[in-house]
Design a protein that fits this description.
The chain is α/β, with parallel strands linked by helices. An 8-stranded mixed beta sheet has the order 6-5-4-3-2-1-17-16. A hairpin with a 6-residue loop joins β7 and β8.
Length: 574
């Protein structure tokens, strides 16, 4: 039914486009003829047939119309990033409710799968008829928002825009988090400057990449060290590329809401009984800082470092990058002032200068003489005793922590298809602390209560967290008290469980240490779903039925799947 309905809508759109194109061409030819330009008129008439878009082009004009009593989830193949258009059927088959969830990618990744954010943005406009009822931005990272530009979404109107409470300008906790984040970002820039000045261009470039993730931008707007001062000021004032993308949706929306977990059960606007539950992010700042799984929460196969660079490093490096000019600073190591002697001052100190010159690498001659005499196993004057820049190498951990904490502030939504019905779980990039918070409270539903465990038990679709990375899907047992993969799809729902992974493996392998998707988690998803796992860079023809799935179940799944270069469609019956 889904396949036939979607093909029918594409044929209707194709006919409409063809008629409009021919009519436009005839008008141009007639105008050229009236103006006396017979040559141009003849050329225009000759090109009439050629200007009619081919079958593939007309498909991009098709409205996304789900079958009755169904939901179609369109997973756009935008690159290493998230972009979902979800169409909920209503009483009027030609007027579904459209929910757009994020639209962004890691710069460089779309080239690996031959798509662009521009064509996907315009495809969304065409698929929705130029109107999205709900636009959701889960969190402020470029791979979720940098596809949102005025040009990409020209002609799109938005009824409601939803954000996490962490974006609420009137929330005191959110404002405090933003201030701390700015301090850390300032420290990270300072560390980057010191490393570059010390000649470690490779490590400085590594930090440039991390800073780009926070500032945002696309392939043509990567972070430039020379623009640090302006960029930092812009970010503080809401002018970063990520903020600008988010503002576009805010400006177009008739209503903007900042959602908090466990507060209310919302009915999806425009539908009769589709309900929305907000699971995260948690309001507890400590949980937001809890990033990596511990013990049995982790899927084995990856060594995880849960060490945090913390605020000590940020405070020290912040002194190295002043707010008025991040390119300047003293470069003070992360210790209290009473324990610090700057190397330049140390060698000139009246009381201790001779000692520092002799033992801390200030005069190579001393070390050379002692080594020549062979009197010591260690030179008197080795440069490695200084820590001028060594402490800065922990800056990458700070960058990872900042990146993870932004991920952990993800807005996590569960769409329930009628009271007690199937659930679609969109976990964005939620990490450990976000997952742990889901079961700490529930929702009042009249005289009853709904729990996270109940919702997850009915989940038939799971948008895998953070490109299926090692720390964004928790392992565990059904009997555990924290949310984990085992909680999902219990009973008959397990026969329909499907996962979506927004990853481009070939691009991820070009990044240092990026194991996306993480094999242990993907293997578990394949097992749990009997092979029903979509991945951005994997064509539908490569999806294979698992041994634990019957041919009837697999055929039923395939009948509800469509796909092309730009997207995958998966229809769920309510």
């Amino acid at each position: 039914m889904a396949r036939k309905a979607m093909k029918a809508s594409k044929k209707e759109a194709a006919k409409s486009v063809k008629k409009r194109t021919k009519k436009s061409a005839k008008k141009k030819a007639a105008a050229a003829k009236r103006s006396g330009n017979r040559k141009k008129a003849a050329k225009t008439n000759a090109e009439t047939t050629a200007t009619v878009p081919p079958a593939v082009a007309t498909e991009t004009e098709a409205r996304l119309l789900p079958p009755a009593n169904s939901v179609t989830v369109r997973m756009y193949r935008i690159g290493h990033g998230d972009c979902f258009l979800v169409a909920f059927a209503t009483a009027d088959p030609k007027k579904p409710v459209y929910v757009l969830i994020d639209c962004g990618y890691k710069p460089g990744s779309p080239a690996f799968i031959n798509t662009t954010a521009r064509e996907i943005g315009q495809h969304i406009v065409a698929a929705t008829g130029g109107r999205v009822h709900i636009a959701v931005i889960t969190h402020e990272h470029q791979d979720h928002v940098n596809g949102i530009t005025e040009a990409n979404f020209a002609g799109l109107s938005i009824d409601h825009a939803w954000f996490a409470w962490t974006e609420d300008p009137e929330d005191d906790v959110a404002n405090d988090l933003r201030k701390k984040f700015k301090d850390k970002l300032l420290g990270l820039i300072g560390a980057r400057n010191r490393l570059a000045a010390a000649g470690d261009v490779k490590q400085a470039a590594r930090l440039d990449d991390f800073i780009s993730f926070e500032f945002g931008g696309d392939d043509g707007q990567m972070f430039q060290p020379a623009q640090m001062t302006a960029m930092l000021g812009a970010a503080a004032g809401g002018g970063s590329a990520n903020k600008k993308s988010m503002q576009i949706f805010k400006d177009r929306a008739n209503d903007v809401r900042y959602l908090r977990p466990h507060e209310e059960i919302m009915t999806l606007p425009g539908t009769a009984d589709t309900r929305v539950f907000v699971l995260g992010p948690p309001k507890d700042p400590d949980l937001l800082k809890t990033l990596d799984p511990l013990g049995d929460e982790e899927f084995r196969g990856h060594a995880v470092s849960s060490a945090s660079a913390g605020n000590y490093f940020a405070a020290a490096a912040r002194d190295d990058a002043r707010a008025d000019d991040p390119s300047r600073g003293s470069g003070r190591p992360p210790f209290a002032n009473r324990y610090v002697v700057e190397s330049k001052k140390a060698t000139r100190d009246r009381q201790h200068g001779r000692f520092f010159k002799a033992h801390y690498g200030a005069e190579n001659g001393v070390a050379e003489r002692s080594a020549a005499r062979g009197q010591y196993e260690v030179d008197d004057n080795p440069a490695w005793r200084r820590i001028d820049t060594e402490w800065l190498y922990s800056s990458e951990q700070l960058a990872l922590d900042m990146n993870g904490q932004t991920n952990n502030s993800s807005l996590v939504l569960a769409f329930e298809l009628g009271k007690g019905g199937k659930v679609l779980l969109f976990a964005a990039d939620a990490q450990r602390g976000n997952w742990l918070s889901w079961a700490k409270a529930g929702w009042k539903d009249g005289k009853e209560a709904v729990t996270a465990k109940d919702l997850l038990s009915r989940a038939v679709l799971y948008k895998a967290g953070h490109h299926c990375s090692h720390n964004a899907t928790l392992n565990g047992k059904l009997t555990d008290t924290y949310a984990n993969l085992s909680w999902m799809s219990q009973g008959d729902h397990g026969r329909e469980f499907t996962a979506m992974i927004t990853a481009v493996r070939a691009w991820a392998e070009t990044q240092k240490g990026w194991d996306h998707p993480f094999k242990a988690i993907k293997d578990e998803l394949l097992k749990k779903s009997s092979g029903r796992v979509f991945q951005t860079d994997t064509d539908l023809e490569k999806m294979a039925k698992a041994d634990n799935s019957s041919q009837i179940e697999w055929s039923d799944f395939q009948s509800r799947v469509e796909g092309e270069r730009l997207f995958f469609d998966y229809t769920v019956r309510a």
